[in-house]
Amino acid sequence: MEQRRLGTNGPRVSALGLGCMGMSDFYGPADDKESLATIDAALEAGVTLFDTGDFYGMGHNELLLREALKGGKRERAFIQVKFGAQRDPGGAFIGFDTRPNAIKTALTYTLKRLNTDYIDLYMPARLDPAVPIEETVGAIAEMVQAGYVRHIGLSEMGADTIRRAHQVHPIAGLQIEYGLMTRGVEDEILPTLRELGIAVTAYGVLGRGLLGGMKASDFAKPGDFRAHTPRFQGENLANNLTLAQRLEAIAAEKGVTAAQLAIAWALSRGSDIIPLVGTKNRKRLGDALAALEIKLTAEELGRIEAAVPASAVAGTRYDARQMQMLDSERRSA
Question: Is the pLDDT of residue 64 over 90?
Fold first, then answer.
C-alpha cells in the first residue's frame, strides 16, 4: 500500500482512507456484517486511515469500528474522528458545540465507544460560530498534552480560520469535499494548506456517487440524504449524470471504471491529497483500491477535466441551510 504523509511533519498513512459514515447513516440501510467485513478487507489490503464521526449513527459508527478492530488490530489503524455536530432523537442536525468542556466530554465518550486510550486525529466537524477557533483548538491541544489525542485536524474550514487554528497548535489535516465535481478548495484553501504544510483528507471524490456508475433511481432509497440535495434533484441530476457518462466513456477507453478514474485523478493532485473512499461493501472497496495502480498522463488529465469541468456541475453540494454553515465556502476578507 502506498503511503502519504498527513502534513509536513505528520504521520504516514495509507494513500487511500476508508470513510465509514455510510455504514451507519445517511446513505440508506447498511448491513453490519458486510460493513465489518469491509473494514477487515481494508486492513488486509494495507489501508490504515479510517474516518468516522461521533454523530454517525449517534455512536453506532464508532462501536462498529471498535468491533472491527478487536484482537490487536487497533494498532494497525489510524482513526480520525469528527465531533461537535448536535442532533435530536429524530436525527435532525440542530447545531454545533465546540466549547472546551463539550469537547472533553465528547472525547471521553468516543474513547469509551472505540475502547481505545487515544484518538489519532480529532477534529471539529464544522466551525462553531459561537466559539472562537482558538478556544476549540486550544482545548484539543490540552488533550494532546494529556495523551488522549495525537494530532489535530479541521473539517470544512476556510483559509482564515485554518491560519488562526494553526497558530494555536499545528494542524495535520483538513477534511473537505474535493473531487472532479467539487474543486473550490483549489482557489484559496489548498494554497494556504500547502503554505502551512497541512494535508487534505478528501471526501466526495466520486461526487457522492455521481461518478460511481450509479443511476438516478439509486439515489432515491429510504434514508438517503442525497434525495434532498440540490445536485441530485430534477434537471440538476440529469445534467450531472450526463457529465458522469462523459467520464465513463474515457474510462472505458482505458479499461477502467469511471469511479477508478475519478479516484486516480484525485490521487494525482499531489502527495498531500489523501482520498477517502466511502463504502460499506467489499467489492466497491476492492474496485476503489485498484485505482492506486492507474497512472494518468498530462493529456489524460486534460481530457478528464474537460469532460467533467466543475463549472458545469449543477446544484450546490449541500442544501442552502447547510451551505451557510460551511466556513470553507466563505472567502477571505
Answer: yes
Structural domain contains residue 250: no
Mean pLDDT to the nearest integer, 31-37: 96
State the pairing for strand pair 12-14/3-5.
Answer: antiparallel
The grid coordinates listed for 303 are: 481530457
Q: How many helices (H) and strands (E) does the chain have?
A: 11, 12
Give the range of the structural domain holding residue 32, as residue numbers without chain letter.
3-208+263-295
Q: Is residue 325 part of a domain?
A: no
What's the one-letter identity of residue 224?
D
Contact in structure between 211 and 204 (CB atoms under 8 Å):
no
At 27, is the pLDDT very low, low, confident or very high (cuts 50, 70, 90)? confident
CATH of the domain at 37: 3.20.20.100
> Which of 27, 56, 148, 203 is labelled catalytic?
56
In a domain, 200, yes or no: yes
**Catalytic (active site) residue 56:** yes
